[in-house]
Write a structure and sequence with these properties.
The protein has about 425 residues and is of the alpha+beta class. About 45% of the residues lie in helices and about 10% in strands. It has 15 helices and 7 strands. The chain is globular and about 85 Å long. The protein starts with a strand and ends with a helix.
Length: about 425
């Protein structure tokens, strides 16, 4: 759960300011509903649903009595549940509204007024809208080069100027950290800035007037900590979600399926990636796009799913080999041979039989293949005993390793001759 108090001068697209009327902010909050043809009655507060944009503008712009020209007239808060939290509540708008109303009650309770008066949720003037999508930004995309931030580049320049061993080690640590961060971003060949982000992205935009509903008190969440402890309220929101919806991170959930138009959008991204892999980097054994779609639906087309899919493409591009690419995308790592052995044994699949000096693989889901005993020993010298294995891909792995080693050896000899 992430709660952010927006500073319109520095955060986001800087499309509005809060020193004057709220018109530009309300227009911005309407952009998603206009794209989806939902109209302008998308707002709610502690008293009602389906409030029109005009009502919100008039209420906020008229609730400024006693505020000076250079004082904020309203504040904007963005509440962003995590994907697990959204999955836990079924991505439900109604449950998010219940949550928003409860945390705004807490917002009122957290103010310590000079006269000792205790505010209630009904004393606030606030409105909220739920947005379903977020857009991909350039910072979300994986970069093949230039993945260092401007701050990191400046720091590296300063360290290079020193030139001592400790500075060089510090540069290595910075570059390694940036490389790891870059690896967990979206594939630039599949996603572009402005596309919808993968996964569940619903979040709540809350606009709250600086003045209470009776225009008696000025309520500034950026003020003195003794008056309003912003950090404490932000942390409390996570606990409130757990309390309201009995949420723990260990809770398992059924997959939530997107509306048809969103599902088609993400399936298109999956097809695009699998097409690139099959056309450029895979031989005869093509990847099954439908199986990746099922995995994507199971994991709600999450950001982690698409990051793993991008890593799969990158590693195929480098010539890496996968025992089970589907397991890699689902779990973030390739399956181990002994895991395959146990899985096949439980499912009664993949037995090997000794026939005429050969081991023959008997599995109806794969074509029958035979190997001489010496081939099997060579193939499995790095693996555990092979009472049950899934398919011949494991043997091809050893051949691929050998070819790669021979290629590197030949390239090394060639470079020595050139030198």
């Amino acid at each position: 759960m992430h709660t952010k108090l927006i500073n319109p001068a520095t955060d986001g697209l800087k499309v509005y300011h809060n020193l004057g009327p709220s018109d530009r902010l309300i227009s911005y909050l309407l952009h998603e509903s206009k794209e989806n043809g939902k109209g302008e009655q998308i707002f709610f507060n502690q008293f009602a649903d389906n409030i029109s944009a005009e009502t919100v503008r008039n209420a906020l712009n008229g609730n400024v009595k006693g505020l000076r020209k250079n004082e904020e007239k309203f504040f904007t808060i963005v509440v962003s549940p995590g994907e697990d939290e959204l999955r836990h509540i079924g991505n439900s708008d109604e449950k998010l509204k219940v949550f928003a109303r409860r945390i705004m009650d807490d917002y009122a309770h957290h103010f310590n007024l000079k006269d000792g008066h205790q505010l209630e949720g009904k004393d606030l003037l606030w409105f909220a809208a739920i947005h379903a999508d977020r857009k991909v930004k350039n910072l979300d995309l994986k970069k093949e080069d230039g993945f260092l931030s401007e701050k990191e580049k400046r720091l590296i320049q300063d360290l290079k100027a020193k030139g001592d061993p400790s500075s060089l080690k510090a540069i290595e640590r910075i570059e390694l950290s940036a490389d790891r961060r870059n690896a967990h971003k979206l594939d630039e060949e599949v996603f572009q800035a402005g596309d919808n982000k993968p996964g569940l992205n619903k979040h709540i935009h809350i606009v709250v007037s600086r003045k209470d509903i009776n225009m008696q008190y000025s309520l500034n969440p950026r003020g003195w900590k003794a008056r309003f402890d912003l950090r404490k309220w932000q942390e409390n929101n996570g606990h409130r979600f757990q309390e309201l919806f009995s949420y723990t991170k260990e809770t398992m959930h059924e997959a939530f399926y997107f509306p048809k138009q969103d599902k088609a959008y993400f399936e298109g991204k999956i097809e695009e990636t699998i097409h690139l892999i099959n056309e450029k980097y895979v031989g005869e054994e093509k990847l099954d796009g439908e199986q990746f779609k099922r995995i994507g639906a199971k994991f709600n087309y999450s950001r982690a799913f698409f990051i793993n899919l991008g890593k799969l493409k990158s590693r195929y591009q480098k010539g890496d080999y996968f025992v089970d690419p589907y397991h890699f995308v689902a779990r973030g790592r390739d399956i181990k041979p002994d895991e395959y052995a146990g899985q096949d044994k439980r499912e009664g699949k993949g037995s090997w039989q000794w026939e005429g000096g050969k081991f023959t693989h008997k599995d109806p889901s794969f074509p029958e293949r035979s190997f001489h005993f010496q081939e099997l020993l060579a193939a499995f010298r790095h693996y555990r005993p092979f009472s049950y294995v899934r398919d011949p891909m494991l043997f091809e792995h050893e051949l691929r390793r050998k070819r790669k080693w021979q290629q590197q050896r030949e390239e090394g000899k060639q470079s020595e001759l050139e030198n």
